[in-house]
Design goal:
Belongs to the peptidase M20A family. With 465 residues, the protein is α+β, with helices and mostly antiparallel strands. It is built from 15 helices and 18 strands. The strands form five sheets. A six-stranded mixed sheet has the order 1-2-6-3-7-17, with helices on both faces.
Length: 465
């Protein structure tokens, strides 16, 4: 790296740190444009109940055209009969030396009720160094960053070695959804988004309790999402003459066994790489615990200590959580039907059918376990050396001394559809966003994280062109 580039990186890093410490500061023209687009996008309601993804992507199309893209470069496509579920696809032509890179971000958000929030969830509020709004972090920040980067590339008349494709999609937050944008595009318009690799959400930087960066995350895997229904039935009867064979008891006994069940622990390539990094990063007993589970065989004491953490248990094994219970039809009648909904997050490489068989064995013969929807059993992405090298170089320029860790998301994103289709997808934000209240009340994101992501993604896309 030459002296000019090192100096530019140092100045940018100092600027980002100043924003992080001092709250709102004067923005560069590029940052101001990003903030304006981000605000507009956040304030367009894209919930499933009353919102419109189409309105959001149409607004983004206006900005893209203002940067010089032609109408023919942009397509807005919605599933039949669902005009509010629009998806935007944009292509910046390269010279064709390499296969395309897909930049993907969903614009839909989970529901948010004004009466529950301290602030209007559909107004962007900047307060004490944070942006507050539904979608502030998940995932309109990434969407706005990709839009502004594509605008910048067009203005520069840059011709990369590969086509750059932007896809702003709908219905990532609903699982399963008949109008999921990525599934729709793969099924009906595969040629528009076909690529060698894709950048998506699911990976971000982490900070400690005092807001100091601890590591930057590159997501290469996510857990498989599968919901099961557990049903027990009975002839019912009058509640004045209760029987011991109540189906609620059958379900309760099975759920007690499920609560005590310990799913087998497995290290996938992604989680092994993650724990190798954490063993170097952590200190004291925590570091010894990570080193212990990397041994062959695993240190049982270290494993037991890690499994006391809900998060570590989710990283190391399948998990199945009871999310809904529905039983009975009257206060004075014995129940005829009990339905329990269990949502499982399954490690890549595990089979959904095997998890279902395990649940059936745990619940017993009186409870029928069935899949509530068709599973998407997608493989993890390979850990690409060229991407990891470029990602690490950019991180070192912007955040000197902050290590990079390969990660697995315990949640589920749209990468599963692309990976299943052979388009290897990687999650990243290039910013530090943990503790953002995603999907919860008063969702927020550090204001500095928006500009960190802008600087990071612009550099990374150029390196991977």
């Amino acid at each position: 790296m030459n002296r000019t580039l090192r100096l530019a990186g140092a100045l940018l890093a100092a600027s980002l740190q100043s924003t992080a410490v001092g709250g709102q500061t004067a923005l560069t023209p590029d940052q101001a444009e990003l903030r304006s687009i981000y605000k507009e996008l956040v304030e367009i309601n894209t919930t499933d109940s009353v919102g419109s993804c189409t309105r959001a992507v149409q607004a983004m199309a206006v900005h893209l055209k203002s940067a010089g893209y032609a109408d023919a470069d942009i397509q807005i496509l919605a599933p039949p009969g669902k005009p509010q579920k629009g998806n935007l696809v944009l292509r910046l032509k390269g010279n064709g030396t390499k296969k395309p890179l897909l930049l993907m971000a969903h614009v839909d958000v989970v529901e948010a009720r004004r009466e529950d929030w301290a602030r209007d969830p559909f107004k962007l509020i900047e307060e004490d160094g944070y942006f507050y709004a539904r979608g502030a972090s998940d995932n309109k920040a990434n969407a706005a960053i990709f839009v502004t980067q594509m605008m910048a590339f067009k203005r520069e008349r840059w011709v990369p070695n590969r086509d750059l494709i932007l896809a702003l999609t709908c219905d990532e937050e609903i699982i399963p959804s008949p109008t999921n944008g990525v599934q729709f595009l793969l099924r009906e318009h595969r040629d528009l988004i076909d690529a060698e690799l894709a950048f998506d959400e699911g990976g971000s930087g982490n900070t400690d309790g005092e807001g100091r960066p601890t590591f930057q995350g590159l997501k290469v895997a996510e857990k498989i999402y599968q919901t099961f229904e557990m049903v027990a039935t009975d002839r019912g009867g009058h509640s004045s003459v209760p029987r011991r064979d109540n189906p609620v008891f059958d379900v309760a006994e099975g759920l007690t066994r499920l609560a005590a069940y310990r799913w087998p622990v497995t290290l996938t390539p992604a989680t092994r790489a993650y724990y190798v990094g954490m063993a170097k990063l952590a200190k004291g007993e925590e570091a010894e615990n990570y080193k212990g589970i990397l041994k062959e065989p695993m240190d049982p004491a270290a494993l037991e200590r890690l499994l006391q953490s809900d998060y570590q248990r989710a990283m190391l094994s399948n998990t199945c959580g009871v999310t809904m219970v529905n039983a009975g039809h009257a206060q004075n009648a014995l129940p005829q039907r009990v339905v329990v909904t269990v949502n499982c997050r399954i490690l890549p490489g595990n089979r959904v059918a095997d998890v279902q068989a395990t649940l059936q064995k745990i619940m017993g013969d009186k409870v029928r376990v069935s899949a509530a929807h068709e599973a998407v059993e997608a493989p993890a992405s390979p850990i690409r050396s060229d991407l990891l090298a470029a990602f690490t170089e950019v991180n070192a320029e912007l955040f000197p001394g902050v290590p990079v860790l390969v990660t697995m998301s315990v949640a589920t994103q749209d990468a599963r559809f692309l990976n299943q289709a052979g388009i290897w997808t990687y999650g990243m934000s290039g910013s530090f966003r943990n503790a953002s209240g995603t999907h919860g009340l008063n969702e927020r994101m550090r204001a500095a994280a928006l500009y960190e992501g802008q600087a990071f993604m612009g550099r990374l896309i150029r390196r991977m062109q």
